[in-house]
Amino acid sequence: LSWFGRIKKSLHGDFGSICLLLFLYLLQGIPLGLIAAIPLVLSSKSASYSQQAVFSFAYWPFSIKLLWAPIVDSVYWKRIGRRKSWMVPCQYLLGIFMLLLSYKVSEIMGDEDSDSNPPNVFVLMLMFLPLNFLAATQDIAVDGWALTMLSRKNVGYASTCNAVGQTAGFFLGNVGYLTLDSPDFANRFFRAEPKPYGLVGLAGFIFFWGWVFLITTTAVLVFKKEIDYSVSNKFVSSLYEKDDKSEELELGIIETYTVLWRILRLKPMIWMVLVLLTGKLAFAATDGITGLKLIGMGMPKDKLSGMAVFLTPLQILLPWAIGRYTSGPRPLDVFLLAYPYRIFMSGVFAAMVWWTPSFKLSSGDFSVLLYIFWIAAYCFHQVASYSMFVSMMAFNAQVSDPAVGGTYMTLLNTLNNLGGNWPVTLILSITDHFTFKNCVDQQTKVILGSCSTKVLEDECTAGGKVCDVVVDGYYIAVILCSVIGIIWYKLLFIKIKYFQKISRNDWSVVKR
Questions:
Q1: The model's pTM
Q2: What DSSP string describes 245-289?
Q3: What is the DSSP code (8-state) at residue 363?
Q4: Does residue 438 have a pLDDT over 80?
Q5: List of residues 6+ apart from 33 with CB closer than 8 A
Q6: What is the fold of 275-435+472-512?
Q7: Where are the transmembrane segments (predicted)?
């Protein structure tokens, strides 16, 4: 047998299910990648950081899906299936929504060559927010279905399907779209005569995937049957009566919310919530603005997003390499080592942003050497970022109460995701206020006044003058976040060490 045949045989009848899961997770990644690409497009259209902050709310549903996850797990139509009752409607709505959006998105995004018709960012956020909400709900349903779709022997492949499928979908929705939309890519490889637009625009890309969602969802509804493994069970009158060897409880809606409240009331959990929700504020400017800043300097969107191709092998290998240091009783030691290093990388990124314009060529693009420097910098940044992520997830897995393990881990993951989103939204919303510009006469070099607001900037440029940046808010934001990070580290270092010293029973909602 070939290697493919051996793998297929080893899956013992689960090969088709694994292929289906990979495709479902790939579909889920498409809107996520597309939403992540929109800020780069907005930046190329000179959208302000405040406008980017408005659009960043479209990211939030994945970070707060725990709020409605118990409903998705408990309410369903038995005739269709527990998971298909949610997955099928969500994917149909995603398809319909994308088809409708494809007819209006060009108008909402504005004409690229005209400042008189700028992007309507608020409407854009309102259009993409439901897409992310539906994708998050589909994720809850598919995660649950994966556990029953696969045999007990192969259920471990569920997380692999999630990681591989969602990564592939994100890549297609992000790098794939930006590449197809790039005039430079189209002119270089597919056209004899250059044109000012790419092979496929945003409207066409969304339209295509809208039909893919509708067609494939219909196929799943008709041809893939769901086996019902649900059992009716009563919530234990007191969780505290469960013994050590009990398996994870199957909880209903009310019971799940009750357990979540009990977890949040645990003494060490109160401090953990603070750590998870505030720890990433130190990196908000670097993570949320650096890419936008590079686009604003003229770096092509497809080339910036294309750097992810070189980071993918590192992202696959890092968790394995870091895992040997986080598998012991003190995984957060890695977190504490990586935190100041990641703050240092924020300074490196700021220096490289300042350095970037000196690599600009007469053609408008940048030197290949600059892209090599940025790929190297992102690689070092990934080491710090993944070290923090893997170590925190390892600790969360260690302290999660086995009796309510799924609920416990989902809560911690939700807090971790939310802790990465709200700081970026906050920093984007205030960075414009740190930026100061002067209106300058090009001929006399005389400063005619401030042009820090959009209205004043338009008045300045309309009169043939130049609006020069005196103080760039990006650098102020990086400094502010770094200072906050250093203070945070000093204040909570001992508390994070303390997390590893206390008994694991202190983290349990089911006392033994």
A1: 0.82
A2: T--PPP--HHHHHHHHHHHHTSHHHHHHHHHHHHGGGGGHHHHHH
A3: T
A4: yes
A5: 169, 170, 171, 172, 173, 174, 175, 176, 177
A6: Growth Hormone; Chain: A; (1.20.1250)
A7: 20-42, 54-72, 84-101, 121-142, 197-223, 269-292, 304-322, 334-356, 368-389, 474-494
In angstroms, rounded to a whole number, what is the distance separating the alpha carbons of residues 68 and 131?
16
What does the DSSP 8-state code read for residue 469? E
CATH topology of domain 13-227: Growth Hormone; Chain: A; (1.20.1250)
- Look-up: residue for tokens 């080893």? 10
| Structure tokens given for 4 | 């493919």
Measured CA to CA, the distance from residue 331 to residue 10 in angstroms comes to: 34
> Taking the C-alpha atoms of 9, 13, 16 and 17 in order, what is their torsion angle to the nearest 10 degrees?
-130
Output the CA torsion sign for 475, 476, 481, 486: positive
Q: Using alpha carbons only, what angle is made at residue 475 by residues 464 and 376, rounded to the nearest 5 degrees?
A: 110
For helices 284-296 and 405-431, angle between their N-to-C axes, nearest 10 degrees: 50
> In the chain, where are the structural domains located?
13-227, 275-435+472-512
Structure tokens at 273: 């919530």
Beta partners for 360? 366
Tell me which DSSP letter residue 329 carries: S
Tokens encoding 352: 């490289």
Nearest-angstrom CA–CA distance, 223 and 19: 14
Give 367-376 pLDDT, tens digit per residue. 999 999 999 9
Asked if 59 and 35 count as a contact pair (C-beta separation under 8 A), the reply is yes
Q: What is the pLDDT of residues 74-91, one digit of tens each?
A: 787 888 887 888 989 999
Angle in degrees, CA 50, 346, 499, rounded to 5: 100
Residue type, 71: I
- H helices of 356-435, where? 368-399, 405-431
Residue 1 pLDDT grade (very low, low, confident, very high; cuts 50, 70, 90): low
